[in-house]
Amino acid sequence: MRELHRFRYDGAIDADGHVLEPPDMWERYIDPRDRDRALRIVPDEDGLEFLDLGGEPSRIIRRGYPAGLGLMDRLAGFVYEREPSGSTYRDSAPLGAMDPGERLERLDRENIERVILYPTLGVLWVAELEDEKRIQANLRAYNRWIVDFCSDSHGRLIPIAQLSLGDIDGALEEIERAAKDGVRGFWVPPFTTTRLPLGDPAHDRIFAACQSLGLPLGIHPAFEPKWCAPGRFGDYTSARYGFFLNTTAGDAVRHAFTSLFQYGVLEKFPELRVIILESGAGWISYWLDRMDTVYATLQGGPVRQIASELPSFYFRRQCWISGDPDEKSLPAIIPLVGEDRFFWASDFPHPDHPPEYVPEVERIVDALPESARARFLGGNAIDAYRLE
Questions:
Q1: Domain of 341?
Q2: pLDDT, greater one: 236 or 228
Q3: What's the CA gap between 150 and 72, in Å, rounded?
């Protein structure tokens, strides 16, 4: 195996790494009463694996698609060989994507102290289901599994639970259950099956629960239902438009994030911590300037009635954002917005981000002021997630 790059700096924390969920994970971790709702990765008649959505085939994760979800290492020439299992999806998983012992080995090789973990298939299949009972059952299964995945790592592997806000009572039950189980935060996709914006008062009980427990709420991009996809150019949802869709994926996160200010969420919940993930970070300076400007205009009147401060005030008090390793503008943006609001994230093992993220992150750190380096590398992630 070609050697992985190793950080020259100590104290690195990957604030948004991913796992590949094992093919049979949902069947093993789902509640027995929901066994018929369990997701599975199985081969089709041609031997190509697809995701079975509890009795119906995925329209997206099909025809061998799962095997391509962990190709980041192979794009850089890092190939980890195992005994064949018979599952192309499992056998193509890179070092550390599906096994906790391997993930710790990877951290040691790269000189990364800790990694905060998010799913892979979980950001995809949610776009296809509207049955909240099936959604909640499979999210519970994943949230149980990720806690077990991280349990023997001495705090180096950090589990984050996934929520669906299409069933508020179900989401609240899962918040309480997963918090007791040991997760260190929650995340939601930018859309809900109810089509309500994230900041809508219907979700206030979710924000209150996260605030009460002292656990952050992240907004992470996901595949989205067809009704969410851009329609101004016609049907722009097929794989042939992957360049367009990957480039603009952060728009949905920005919309969900901005809705928090439209509804005064951070005024109502002053101790709620919000984390913006995998959408780049260079845009946040302009976005805060624009929100501050609109806040002071006639159009900002309704917001001024429920939020006493400028949007940038709440961001600097309660929000953090992850930067991509390939963002060349971050060393200029970070001192302008606030050195304590940014951290880096690898997106490992997904192939839509640079495979050699360690030297990319080092270039950002080298260009930052000395006062910001340790914060960006790991200190801000410790603050955002309240890690020991």
A1: 12-21+104-385
A2: 228
A3: 22
